[in-house]
Amino acid sequence: MNHLIEGLKRAGLRITPQRVAICKTLAESKDHPTAMMIYHALLPQFPTLSLATVYKTLNVLKQLGLVHTLGDAGDGMEHYEADLQPHINLVCVRCHQVVDFDEELIERVERAVAERSGYEIQGARIVYYGLCPRCKNGHTNGTEVK
Amino acid sequence: MNHLIEGLKRAGLRITPQRVAICKTLAESKDHPTAMMIYHALLPQFPTLSLATVYKTLNVLKQLGLVHTLGDAGDGMEHYEADLQPHINLVCVRCHQVVDFDEELIERVERAVAERSGYEIQGARIVYYGLCPRCKNGHTNGTEVK
DNA sequence: ATGCATGCAAACTCTTTGCAAACGC
DNA sequence: GCGTTTGCAAAGAGTTTGCATGCAT
Predict the structure, then answer these.
(1) pLDDT digits over A5-52, tens only?
(2) Which backbone phi and psi does A19 adopt, to 5 degrees?
(3) pTM of the model
(4) Which residues of B touch A123 (CB under 8 A)?
(5) Are A116 and B132 in contact (CB under 8 A)?
(6) How far away is chain A from the Cα of B30, in angstroms, using its nearest Cα?
(7) d(CA B20, CA B37)
(8) Taking chain B, what is the end-to-end CA distance rounded to the nearest angstrom?
């Protein structure tokens, strides 16, 4: 039902309620959450959940290659995503929101890089920074994350 | 002589020996250094140099838009670069080396993103992770950063 | 029953800040 | 001389680690 959980199972790791919840949150969210965001989202459901558990689980998932880290979005925190397809992230420098963007050209870019650089490409992070349409028009309220 | 120093001057800021040295190191280095790397590179020349001064100077340069931050290269540290041209960074996940890579296609990608997303694009970070040719062939010594 | 996962707290690392002394302008 | 910049030390923030308890298998 959730490929992250199946990945954990396949690796012989234990399926705990916390891990199920973290995987579900990560797989279903479209906002590239941080460990802290996942923690707060699950706190009502798991009042004793520890932030350390979230970090440990995310690190396990990352080591298994099931999630990617996106670096920070201007907020100094690591962002995670379960979508492994190569795609573009758009980061709004004002509201710190991260959205995905599909552009077929990047497949050609990746192929060109692999061929001409001699690198064995394992992953990519393609991020454009700027003002989202909402913030560009001065709508700083409502979606402002921080 | 150095556009970073000229930028500081233009902004009405003071040109200290430390700032000159930091700007020179950053402009001349091709290895996308961290604050710590700049600090250690200048320590022989400035025995009393403070890491805080390096950070403060880098933040000033960043706020003036004279340098870009690249995020971490798997080593958990912020990397800086003075090359503002849009280009691709190749990060080796084994030796943590960062090199530049030119690919004309990314100009078209940026134009497509700007047109289709509605974002006001201010900058980009395009990074491919993988094994550099040297590490791919098992040469883990000699260039290993850490 | 075994031993991995959790949760708490403390430790760790990178970066920022406060403030007195030094120095560029 | 004035006001910014430096350098030191301490604080801050995010993430990791150690260890006893709990729980999945």
Answers:
(1) 999 999 999 999 999 999 999 999 988 999 999 999 999 999 999 999
(2) -65, -40
(3) 0.84
(4) 128-130
(5) no
(6) 17
(7) 16
(8) 34
Q: Identify from A113, A116, A132, A135 which residue to disrupt to test chain B contact, counting B C-beta atoms within 10 A and taking the largest count.
A: A113
Q: Inform me whether the C-beta atom of residue B102 falls under 8 Å from chain A C-beta atoms.
A: no
Asked whether residue A5's C-beta has any atom of DNA/RNA strand D within 7 A, the reply is no
Instruction: Name all contacts of B134-142 with Cβ < 8 Å and 24+ positions apart.
Output: B134/B92, B134/B95, B135/B92, B135/B94, B135/B95, B136/A118, B136/A119, B136/A120, B140/B94, B140/B95
Instruction: Classify residue B146 as exposed, middle or buried by CB count within 10 Å of its CB (0-12, 13-18, 19+).
Output: exposed
Identify the DSSP state of B34: B
DSSP for residue A84: -
Checking phi first, is residue A46 left (phi over 0); if not, alpha (psi -120 to 50) or beta?
A: beta
- Identify the residue whose tokens are 């929101």: A97
Greater model confidence, B64 or A95: B64
Question: Which residues of chain A make contact with B118, given a CB cutoff of 8 A?
Answer: 132-133, 136
Instruction: Evaluate if the CB of B49 falls below 7 Å from strand D.
Output: yes
Among all residues of chain A, which has the CA nearest to that of B125? A127
Domains of chain B: 1-82 (1.10.10.10), 85-146 (3.30.1490.190)
